[in-house]
Amino acid sequence: MADDKDVRRRNIGNGDVGNGVGISPFIEAKYYYADRGSTSPNNSSDRFMQREINLQRIRDKAEKLKEEVLSNLETQLRDVIDDFVQEIEMIERHGHAAEGQTPRATTYKKGELADKQYIPRASVLTELLEINHIRTIYHIFVAILIVFSLNTMVYDFLDKGTIITNFDLISWTFGNFPTVMWLWFCMLMSTTVLVYPVFNYWASNRRLGRVYWLDYVWLAIYIMYQTVFLVVPIKVLHDNKLPPASSVVIATEQTRMMMKVHAFIRENVPRAINFKKAKCKKFVLTGLMMRRLFVVQTSPNISTFCLLQLLYIEIIIPRSNHPVKWSYVFSNFAQVLACLFYMYYIFERFCVPVFNNFGVEPFSARRLILCVFGSMLPGTLVLFIGFFSILHSWLNAFAEMLRFADRLFYKDWWNSSNFSSYYRTWNVVVHDWLYTYIYKDIYKLAPTANRAAAMGSVFLLSALFHEYILAVSFGFCYPVLFLMFAGIGFGFIFLPNKGAPRSGNVFMWVALFIGTGLLMCLYSLEWYARQNCAPTSDSAIIDFLVPRSWTCDHISQSAIMTTG
């Protein structure tokens, strides 16, 4: 009997539960003394309860520390494993193991940031789609596209008496395409005919040694070129009144070429300045230097450059040895085309009917809230489809044609447990460019311990160009994306990541759903306000900067009353 009581006391002391209900320290102390047939003294009881309370606090702190350590350890371990796998792939690629050699690791000075390493590897979805379970999810999206097509056909048949869909929205949004191609070709030729020859002339004829005043003149010429390259296409877009999709093509290609040119200049200027005459009689851009602009593995001629400048921003990427799989290329382009029709159905069924009467019918705050929540699912679908069509299918198609081996254009951003990881993995191509040519350069100029200045500059520049593309494409400035990106989105990266990864991932997805819903709703309202409402000012600049949707309902009601 005594042994049973000892066991019960020991179980209670360890926090065990007998009947599903935990026993408090007070009950434990009471039981301890009652078992010995005596009353519990106040002092002894207080000391025992205080001891148990302190032990429980220690347990709580230990559990909290355990969660923090495991969370940080998981992130660090994942990075270490990724680096290890990359190193193994490099060993297999270059045959170091067969030769009994060890690849030399790049050493960096204290405070110096690491460089991007390129190795042959497939895109994440390319590998995941080989798994049957993931392939089934892909099939589900294909089935949804088929259902959308059938829905449109049935709707047209019942409403118009025909099943022939003319896709007016697609033909309109990509309108005036000859002008788009002509403008794109002019931008491409400016980088081909001007940038490399002019840079080569400066590098070959400058005075050797340190920077002097004439180099700053050439720097001013480079800044002027980038400014003209930024302004002229905007004027052409405005004069020709290009529709949204055609404008998106020009704005994104303009941004890409500006980034490419800056990467070429930034990589080769230090080589030209540090050039030693004893090594060569004249400075000549080598194949390694030219690859920053020309996207090839050997020194190309102009025709090769014109063909191969189609794709990358950051360009030192290994080439694959296998022949081009044209079936893979065509399948990726087919996926891009399917994604285009996917977006058409989303906008045609979920956006146009909801927003096209804005400014014509009364619009209340209640309806605005409903529109925001109603736009979350379509907006997130557009996010998925845009990611899959551009960052996966489009880039992989060109990578296969040009035989580029490093196809890590994105990482598993959908598994991110915080926004800091999401921003690094969503678009690796742009992230690597920003890291290499903006973050690292500003980090060198800022105090060593102050990475926030470099990080803030990267976010500000990225948010500005995202908003620039939307403003140029839509024909109005409504900086919702800028505020969400440079404001709330920038603040999200400082949120503590002390909880479980699952809860962090859920929070990220909830934020993405809300963000895409707000973007689709507010930009759609402003677009149709521009179609249905009077300008806010006689000044074109003020009308461009001030959203019409803020005053559209008042103007439309006034117009109705005046007409009546």
Automatic annotation (TrEMBL):
Domain of life, per lineage: Eukaryota
Topology class, membrane: Multi-pass membrane protein
Coiled-coil ranges (or none): 48-79
Residues annotated as transmembrane: 137-158, 181-199, 211-234, 298-317, 329-347, 367-391, 468-494, 506-525
Keyword Transport: no
Record GO cellular component, one term: endoplasmic reticulum membrane
InterPro entries linked: MBOAT_fam, Oat_ACAT_DAG_ARE
GO molecular function: O-acyltransferase activity
Family the UniProt entry places it in: Belongs to the membrane-bound acyltransferase family. Sterol o-acyltransferase subfamily.
Protein name according to UniProt: O-acyltransferase
